[in-house]
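tool=predict chain=A
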Amino acid sequence: MRSVETPKLVGFAGILGSEFNLPIQVDWNTLEFAMGINSSLEEFWNRVKSVTDRAAQLVREFDLDLFPAGAHPVAPMFNSSHIHVGTIYDESLGIYMESQLMRYTPAFAALAANSPFTEWRIGEFKSYRVRHIAHDCTRPVTLRDPQFAQPEWGTDAAPKIYGAPTLEVRITDCASSRRFLAELATFVAAYVHYQGTKVEKAHKMTPEEYRECLTNRWAAAKYGLQATFSWQGKPKPAVELISEMLDECRSELARLGAKRSDLSIISKALEKRTCQADFVMTLFDHYPDPHLLASAYGKLVRHWEMFEEYLENAPTLEPVPMVDKEAVIAEHLSWVGEGTHFYRLRGAMLYPAPATDEIIESMIEQELIRREVTPNCGTLLYRVK
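tool=predict ok
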């Protein structure tokens, strides 16, 4: 399976942009379908269908297929369905909102998980893209105070002021199902708007709450809709949280011409705790070679309803228990080899320095690792055999 060189992609983008009067462009060797301003589920759904139908027809004239996915089995690519919501008139309120939304972005990630492969690695995570912060293009937010904030880019959900000033949600993997994408974008837009009606300027997240958000983010990337989040220290299944969120934003859904029953694919996915990544993993059972998997997947997505059809007969998956201390230790320990720099462990679950240092001390106390301090490299860690 071959990828297309950038000049040809630019040509495709130019034709599509001209035909549909949309700012379709190329980014990171990928066709980026910017869908303009949409005010309803129906409008967005019809636009997605018309643009992708024409794009598929256009590339097929060159014996090519579209490859809508959050990642690629072989190539170092991560792709997202970025969702831009509303119009930001007050940057300070947008900064407050990014902190407020941090608790809920793992739910979006779990629902949209669609990258269970990347660069020859398959199946350890349902979203390698979220797990590996999408080449630094979707990171957890750093809590900001508007009085001291500098512009930021590339976080899971944050105000994007330059260009079209919106609240941008970046944590969601690229969808393979068009209808699922329409439902996802409508739900995310409705829920972000709902949160925007009740911005809490006074609330300051505690270190424990921040760490809980990061743990849930890791669980969403690892388990998708099977994840059980920690919610104020108590277990809450991801599907239960998303269901509550859907109920909370009923009024906002109505403003987008939708009601919960219109989001039938999301409802079925929640019922079965099954995300798009689960379909891909089923396909991997038949095509274990990554090159063959990429080829088979590219042909299957010609039929845009493949995920919906899979959901109808898919088994209901069991929830995975909430991430506990032992799981946190195990994940951090997996990053330690021979002479691993201590800073590398910050990448394990993206915890801040004090939390990561606490875990390192715990592993030393349990004699899982040993520490060596060197003048040239600083602190190095070694796994105890």
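The longest strand covers residues 369-374. Residues 65-313 form a domain with the Creatine Kinase; Chain A, domain 2 fold (CATH 3.30.590.20).
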